[in-house]
Structure formats: structure tokens, C-alpha cells
Amino acid sequence: xxxxxxxxxxxxxxxxxxxxxxxxxxxxxxxxxxxxxxxxxxxxxxxxxxxxxxxxxxxxxxxxxxxxxxxxxxxxxxxxxxxxxxxxxxxxxxxxxxxxxxxxxxxxxxxxxxxxxxxxxxxxxxxx
Length: 128
Description:
Number of domains: 1
Helix content: 40-55%
């Protein structure tokens, strides 16, 4: 190429910015992550609430003197106060070993993402 042909090529400084297609793809990517995040975050908030209740019972020694029904009632009352309605209390089990209570919380939650795509979150927490 000679010097005249090089001058006719667009300079790199004049090729700044993003195309409409690029902006659309960026918007779709961000909105997809935001949608997934807003659907997954409540699952973890609810799980942290449930494990927090059970962990408090184990840490302060209350769980040793309680039955599984008492533990489930305590969790149920707290969930009702926090408006968590779709948790199966049978997912909470308890066993006692050496004067210590071991509470297991094992369940999975399924949330519809879009159309026929679901997000499945499996939780298996052992508190001792």
C-alpha cells in the first residue's frame, strides 16, 4: 500500500464506541444475570435463616433437651414470622450423640427461571 491508500483508511481514533448489536447483547447478558440472581438469592436467604435458627439451638445447648418436634416448631414459628411459606419441615432431622444434638437440614428447592428452565438448589447442612 502506498501512502495515499493509507490516508483513505479509517483511523483507529474514529472507530470508537459500541454498535447497537453490541449494546443489545450486553443488555441481554446483564439482564440474564440479574434475573437469575434475583431468583436464586431468596433461596440462600431462606436457607441462612433456617440454619441460623438451628445453629443457635445447637450452640446454646437447647437442642439437647428438645425433641425433633420442638425444633421443627421453633423453625416453623420463625419462618411464619419471616413469611417463608414453602419449606418442608420434614427436611430437618435430629439425632443425639454423646449428649450433643446433631441437626441435619437436607432439602432441595426448584425455581422456574424462564419457560421450561429451572434452577435447582440442593442444601445439605449438618450442625453439631
